[in-house]
Amino acid sequence: MFTGIIEELGEVSSLEPLRDAARLAIRGKAVTADAKHGDSIAVNGVCLTVVDVGGEVFTADVMKETLDRSSLGALRPGSPVNLERAVRADARLGGHIVQGHVDGTGVLLSREPAEHWEVVRISLPAELNRYVVEKGSIAVDGVSLTVASVDAEAFSVSLIPTTLELTTLGAKRPGDPVNLETDVIAKHVEKLVGAYGPGGRP
Question: Could you tell me which residues the Lumazine-binding repeats occupy (predicted)?
């Protein structure tokens, strides 16, 4: 599990295409400090399992479903990436519950600079719309954000200077894809309510 509080901005060292997957090598000084085989690290919001660690670089295998559902397949050597290690059970939950299971991708539509922040509007796939509510939480490229507004086609978030400086969202431009993970609690509630129905019985 993750919190959506990015630990560092890493960099893609290499992306090796395989027959039905890819092997990704990422450079990140902080996340590799105590990383070992089998650990989980979120890369742009996607939970990946560490295969190997060498110096400040770790490698992970990315399966086809992950490539299809996320923007990881578009990464190239030198691409910046948001990195977060799995949260410890005794740590503060500074953001919200993030699984690292991306639901789909959106496209950055616009940026509106203000004096101390930026309002960013992002397209929202129709099948995810019901899980996104005003003042609720959403992970965008692994960053825990509060939804400022939402309509049938898109949602907006406000990015503070720290987020603009320390994550990939500061450099994203209109047309760029982003990974989206909606609130897992909303999905569980929907399933439970649907299972029991209006009469309270399954």
Answer: 1-96, 97-193
